[in-house]
Input
Amino acid sequence: MKSLLNYALFQGVWFAAVWGAAEGRVHLGFLAALAMLAVHLALVASTERARELAYVLGFGLVGTAIDSGLRAAGWIAYPTSDAWMHPTAPPWILGLWLGFAMLPRFSLAWLRPRPVLAAVLGAIGGPLSFFAGTRFGSIEPASSAAWLALAVEYAALTAIMMRLAPRAPRAA
Output
């Protein structure tokens, strides 16, 4: 049940982020991710919450930093986030990364022992998610090289996320 809830909440974060960005509401996805984080941490054992929070925040910031680098290099544009005048990726991207980092404990736990499969699914799923964002008008990769960069980014980070994901303590 936790896996299904985790997956459904992430889908809600994704939609809030991408739709919100398309509507010029660059903070909506971040706020949705904070709501997901509150539910997520409530589902995690109290002894594991600090570690889980550090993991989620760490990967949220790493993914956002990489996307900010792609933006600074001119490989990715966020055309509907004109209100976000900073050189970094807009807050909705941080929301997406935070939400994505919450998946390994529950809905993607089955992927943890399969790093090659995690990389392959990341290389496919990350760019597909960005492609869907282009349909909303929220994101715009500059060239085919940008798609390759996204595939490499998501392949590497998905595999690393799965490798480093905190595991739920085993029941006695």
Q: What stands out?
A: Strands lie at 76-77, 140-141. The longest helix spans residues 49-72. The chain is about 65% helix and 0% strand. Helices lie at 2-22, 28-43, 49-72, 91-101, 115-136, 144-164.
